[in-house]
Amino acid sequence: MISMPVIDREKCNGCGLCVSVCHCKVLVLVDNIVTLIEMKKCLSCNRWCTLCEEVCPTGAISWPLEILIEEP
Questions:
Q1: How confident is the prediction along the chain (72 residues), in pLDDT tens digits per residue?
Q2: CA distance linking residue 53 with residue 2, whole number of Å
Q3: pTM of the model
Q4: Are 49 and 11 spatial neighbours (Cβ–Cβ below 8 Å)?
Q5: Which domains does the chain have, with CATH numbers?
Q6: d(CA 36, CA 15)
Q7: How far apart are CA 29 and CA 71, in angstroms?
């Protein structure tokens, strides 16, 4: 299952930092709230960089990633 960023609209303060760091250009501000557009474009991004989550000062964006560690 491929994860997508989860946006908590109530926490978003509309600062736009996430939009400015999004390499895939799938985040935009709509009525001063970050919105995810063109999900297929984000799915094709092989970086899953999570920069949007890192720069968000209010914690409005999270990536529900699952880390799997395989034993040799």
A1: 456 788 999 999 999 999 999 888 889 999 999 998 876 666 556 566 788 999 999 999 998 766 778 887
A2: 16
A3: 0.76
A4: no
A5: 6-62 (3.30.70.20)
A6: 15
A7: 42
